[in-house]
Amino acid sequence: MAFNLHIDALNPRRSTLHLEGRLDAMTFGEFDKEAEKVLQQMATGSTLVLDLSSLEYISSAGLRSIAKARKSMRAREGQTLLLNPQVQVRKVFDIVKAVPIKEIFQDMQELDQYLDQIQRKMMSESDDVE
Amino acid sequence: MTGYDVVGGVMVLRSLASRLAVWVLSGATVVFVASGFLLFRMVGRQLVQQAHRETEALASQGGSLIQERMDKVTNTARVLAAIIGPRPLDAEPLIRDAMAQNSDLAGLAAAFTPDTAAVKSVGRSPFVSRQYNGALVHRDLLKDPVPYWTAPWFKKGVDCDQGCWQAPFLSQSRHRQLVSYSSAMRVDGQVIGVVNADVTLDWLQGVLLSMDIPAGIHAFVVDQQGTYLANDTPGLVGKRADPALLGILQADDATNGWSNMPLQDQQGQAVGIYSQPIRGTDWNLALVVPDELIYAGVRQAFLSVLVIGALALLLLALLTMVIIRRLLTPLGVLAERAEFVARGALDFALPKVRRADEVGRLTGAFDKMRLELAAHLVELTRIAREQERLASELEIAQQIQTALLPGPHYLDARCQNFELYAALKPARTVGGDLYSYFMLPGQRFCVIIGDVADKGIPAALFMARTITLAKAMSSRAQTPQHLLQLLNRELCKNNDNCMFVTLLCGFLDAVSGNMAMASAGHDPPVLWGHAARPQLLSLASGPALGLEEDASYPIHRIRLKPGDTLLMYTDGVTEATNAALNPYGGERIIARIGEYHDHDEKPADPVKFLVDDIEQYSAGYGQADDIAVLALRWNHVGLEKGASMLELVFSASLQDVFDTLTRCDSTLRMAGVRHDVQSDVRLVLEELMVNMVQHGHSDEREATIGLRLTVAEEAILVELSHNGAAFDPLQSTTHRLTDDTAEKEEIGGLGLHLVRAMASELSYTHDEYGNHLQLRFACSYLKEHEHGL
Question: How far apart are CA B281 and CA B167, in angstroms?
């Protein structure tokens, strides 16, 4: 049980992947495979949330997998948000500066607030257009 | 001051001037005496000859004078005889006239032979004599009571053909001593009588005295019979002369002149006699000259010469003294100053000498010598001070060098796993050999022994540089070969003199007894154990440090068993020489250590044993090179509490890598390492090992990875080795990190970036065995139980 991926009910607008255990050179393939399935169904401009609260450990191979997911989401003009990374994982992110600080959130509430804010912003922008 | 004067007097006597004067004077005296003697001989002879000539002249003159006067008498007598012979009747008037004319005559007589015609015709024999008062007295001899024709004088006068002088006689009638000349009167060849002319001896005496005879010379006239006819001593007239004197005179009769016969006069003085016959008589005029008179002149001449010579000599002496003193005075001053110099006083003035002779040159040279000596002394003093300073500096340098070395005995105090003995003996005050040992982080113990080429101060400085650099760099180095590399690179810098140091470096894992060693041209160490005999541990060696900047040093690993001792030494040991010039040699080390090893009650310190043995061995020759010996004994009392270790070799596959990671995790967890540190270690190891699996393909052999993990008190130490292609993770390019790694296609540098960030220390070496990575994780905070977590 080195790594486990748990996926919430699939929603093309907003999906959450729960990562558990160790994401490393041994397990990143498993994550890639599962994540790919989710990513294919994600709509344009959707949001992918990676819940890292149960992720104990990440190595450069895991970082690469997360980077790939981010790249894939960006191709869909979507965004990837990281939720609640543990100290060890956070340290790795900090070292490699793999993810912008603004895309890392401590808990779901903070994340929701952020998403609402964006939504409102986008709404006002579209109002302006209209 | 009296003492000084006495010394001064002795000095004067001993001075060169005095001695020279004495010698010159002695020579002059000898010459003077010799020449004086010769002169005296020559002058004396001349003077004697002159005296002889003078006397001869005197005698000749006296003889002539007497003869002249006598001749008048004899002439008168002869003339009268010639006239009276034919005319006997004129006899009386003739005689009377002759008497009146010639005052020399004392009496004249014409004595006829009796019975002749003359007597018969005349009838008398006239005789005229002169009285004292000068009155002439006439007498007829025929009337004398005693017939004169029988008297000897008459007979002699008759017989005397040419006339002759008679012997002196005392005239009874006139009371005077007379001498007469008789000349025969002839008629027709018939002797008719004798004319007899008398003169007094007083007259003759007067003639003699009328001679100018120098004082001291006696003169006399003596006849053939030895009667004094005249004598400058009047009392002797008419007396018989001394027979000895007569003998001389008669012996010299034939040859008138100087008598060489020794004779003494009445006073006993030596005299010389000169006789001169008076012609017409058988008389001799004799001059008696005392030797004294002759030699007085010579003596006087000699005396004057002596006095003049002595004066000249004295003058010469004075002159010599003065000149020599003047010449040699500077010499005396120089001698005095030279004594100053002998006492060490150089500050004095020399008299000014302008002369260009030897003394002048000597003075000049002496002054120059004094100045140069003074300068030299100053220089010597300066050098002595300099040397003193150097010696004290050297002593301080020795203290500093000693302070660079750790103590000669070290016991791993905490767990007594090992014990170390060391000794260092410089050949001079300071030396180039070095040893050092110190704990490194992570329970590692570093041991270094080295030998700088050359001896003395340069070697000592290089030694100090080496030992300081080694200490400073040891914390950066994970392995001895790495340390040697770092040291080498550092020592090569600005090493124009090409100084170099051979070094043997060992890193002992104080927990496990594993030892990694690397040698930079150093002598091989000796290893022995409980059961194992001592043997040389031949290590592959790199070049000495400081020569080639790019040199690499092979690593040699051994595992020390309990009881093992590792002995390191410098070549001062193998090259120690005995009196026979045989080196100590490596075999002797093995043999002596073997003896030590076999000893039942061996001393604990093998270093002291060996050093004592070397000292004994080289006692006859002395220590030529620095000696350093270091022995490390592994006791292995036990692992320190809590320390743990993992050592694995596995094939380079992902599966094995992750299996290993799991084992590491459990080891670290067992050791109580804090969780976040565990994760750091795991992350770094995963990155590195995955990298090795994915990129370090080796075609020839099976790729394996070696891992050695030690949990020490303050650090986690990891050694990773991999036999794949050379790859230095430290040198890989650092990616510019953006906020979004997803933008990059290839993000391979990410892992190494993580490694560099996570590991406290990281070092890389590559050798023929492949890549070696040393990692260290700082862990002063890592024990969970110590923090109550």
Answer: 11
CA triplet A116, A118, A121: central angle to 5 degrees?
A: 110
Q: Looking at this protein, which amino acid is placed at residue B152?
A: P
Q: How far is A8 from chain B (nearest CA, A)?
A: 24
CATH T-level fold of B644-787: Heat Shock Protein 90 (3.30.565)
Rounded to whole angstroms, how far apart are CA atoms B680 and B665?
Answer: 11
Type of residue found at B258: W
Residue B7's pLDDT is what?
Answer: 45
CA torsion B127-B133-B135-B137 (nearest 10°) is -30
* Phi-psi category of residue A84: left, alpha or beta, with phi > 0 → left and psi -120 to 50 → alpha: left
What B648-652 contacts at long range (C-beta under 8 Å, 24+ apart), as own/partner pairs, is B648/B706, B648/B707, B648/B708, B649/B704, B649/B705, B649/B706, B649/B707, B650/B704, B650/B705, B650/B707, B651/B702, B651/B703, B651/B704, B651/B705, B652/B689, B652/B692, B652/B693, B652/B696, B652/B703, B652/B704, B652/B705, B652/B722, B652/B724
Phi, psi (degrees; rounded to nearest 5) at B486:
-60, -45
Output the average pLDDT for chain B: 81
Question: Does CATH place domain B405-634 in 3.30.470.20?
Answer: no
Number of structural domains found in chain A: 1
B739 pLDDT band (50/70/90 cuts)? very low
Task: Tell me which chain B residues have a C-beta less than 8 angstroms from the C-beta of A25.
Answer: 654, 657-658, 686, 690
Nearest to B686 among A59, A64, A97 (CB): A59
Residue B745 has pLDDT above 50, yes or no: no
Rounded Cα distance between B476 and B483, Å, is: 8
The alpha carbon of residue A127 is apart from the nearest alpha carbon of chain B, in Å, by: 31
In tens, the pLDDT along B670-717 reads 888 888 888 889 999 998 898 888 877 666 667 889 888 887 767 788
Of the residues A3, A22, A50, A60, the best mutation for testing chain B's interface (the one with the most B CB atoms within 10 Å of its CB) is A60
Number of H helices, E strands in chain B: 17, 29
Is this model's pTM higher than 0.90 or not? no
Contacts of B739 in chain A (CB under 8 A): 97, 99-100
**What range defines the domain where residue A115 resides?**
3-129
Residue type, B349: A
CATH H superfamily, domain B18-313: PAS domain (3.30.450.20)
8 A C-beta contact, residue A7 and residue A38: yes
Give B705→chain A minimum CA distance, Å.
Answer: 17
pLDDT tens digits, B107-132: 888 888 887 777 788 788 888 888 87
CATH of the domain at A52: 3.30.750.24
**A-B Cβ pairs (cutoff 8 Å, strict):** 71
Using 50, 70 and 90 to split pLDDT, how confident is the model at B747? Answer: low
CB-based contact, A5 to chain B, within 8 Å: no
Nearest residue in A to B683, CA atom: A59
In one letter, which amino acid is B604? A
Distance CA B465, CA B436 (A): 13
Half-sphere exposure of residue B618: CA atoms within 13 angstroms, side-chain side:
21
Q: Does A79 touch chain B (CB under 8 A)?
A: no
Q: Where are the domains of chain B?
A: 18-313, 346-401, 405-634, 644-787
Q: Which chain A residues in 97-126 lie under 8 Å from chain B, judged by CB atoms? A: 97-100
Residues of A in contact with B753 (CB under 8 A): 95-96
Q: What is the mean pLDDT of residues A106-126?
A: 83
Rounded to whole angstroms, how far apart are CA atoms B15 and B328?
9
- Model confidence over A27-68: pLDDT tens digits? 999 999 989 989 888 888 888 999 999 998 998 888 888 988
- Give CA–CA dist B753/B734, Å, rounded: 7
3-state secondary structure of A55: strand
